[in-house]
Amino acid sequence: MTHLDRVGDVVLDGLRYEKRDHLAIITLARPERGNSLTLEVHRGLRAIWRDVQLDPAVRVAIVTGTGERHFCTGADVGRIAERGGVSQRSGPLDAEVFYSPVQNRVLKPVVCAVNGSCVGAGLHFVADSDIVLATPEARFFDTHTDVGMVGGVENTALAYRLPIGTVLMMTFMGRDFQLDASRAYELGLVDEIVSGPELMARAEAIGSAIAARSPAAVTRSKQAIWNGREQGYRAAAEYAWAMVRMHWAHPDFQEGPAAFAEGRPPRWQDPEVPGIEDDGV
Q: Is residue 116 over pLDDT 80?
């Protein structure tokens, strides 16, 4: 599957995918198993993230979970025990792991709406989203070492959003160290705490506010800011300056000031976002 052509509610294994009003809403939908992740969910997420990136009508994505108890409880350990492993392959990260927007090279903004406990592999979505909302009941913890696994990829990403000591405590202590929503907010892992009934309304309001801005300008801004995490300050500043100059030639750079001067809503041009190679998945 390379592109989800149908607009509307698409149901894949353990996932629900909806597109409307420039928003793509991705819902983890295995509530009976804590919205845990399987190989089928992994493949579905890869197809969905590809669609988010390639569909010019999509300007912002929102990730959430089904129900009020769990956002995502990580990998389905029962399934892993049945298979005797997590993968049939052991290639490099960019050929194996496709849970999050960063891992799928999605350049559009992503809001993560955490509706309950977020555990283990569920932390991929939190660490790699642009804006994180959480209900007061949300809890964040890592259980890799509890079940004899290495807390590696998600945990490394978390170290960019949390103090290193907090990440190490989460990683080493497993379920015995949990961040509640208020502490996660204090430390910067969560950007806003929102009551459960209002969570998706707030996520969509943020998404709609972003979607109202120039898609090309937002995308290039995201590239500049996230790139800064991977480089030293001077190199990151040079890359950001290149994004600024590149945008000077874009029609939105002229349209924004013109719309402001004329007192009308801007008519943004959908960006030509670099696609994701079709590898037959």
A: yes
Cα-Cα-Cα-Cα torsion 255, 258, 262, 266, nearest 10 degrees, comes to 20
Is residue 124 within 8 A of residue 89, CB to CB? The reply is no
Write out pLDDT tens, residues 166-213. Answer: 999 999 999 999 999 999 999 999 999 999 999 999 999 999 999 999
| Statement to judge: residues 53 and 121 lie in one domain | yes
Q: Are residues 42 and 176 in the same domain?
A: yes
> Do residues 184 and 243 share a domain?
no
* 141 φ, ψ (degrees, to nearest 5): -155, 165
Q: How high is the mean pLDDT of the chain? A: 89
Instruction: Find how far residue 235's CA is from the centre of its chain.
Output: 25
225 and 200 within one domain: no
CB atoms within 10 A of CB 77: 16
Cβ contact 170:128 at 8 Å: no
Q: Same domain, yes or no, for 195 and 222? A: no
Give per-residue pLDDT as tens, 221-262. Answer: 999 999 988 888 788 788 878 888 889 899 998 998 899 899
Both tokens of 219, joined, read 């995308």
In degrees, rounded to 5, the angle at the alpha carbon of residue 189 between the alpha carbons of residues 100 and 139 is 90
What is this structure's pTM?
0.87
Pull the structure tokens for residue 63.
């990730």
Domain that holds residue 250: 215-262
Q: Are residues 202 and 219 in the same domain?
A: no
6 phi and psi angles, rounded to 5 deg: -75, 125
Question: Are residues 127 and 258 both part of a single domain?
Answer: no
Model pLDDT, residue 1: 37
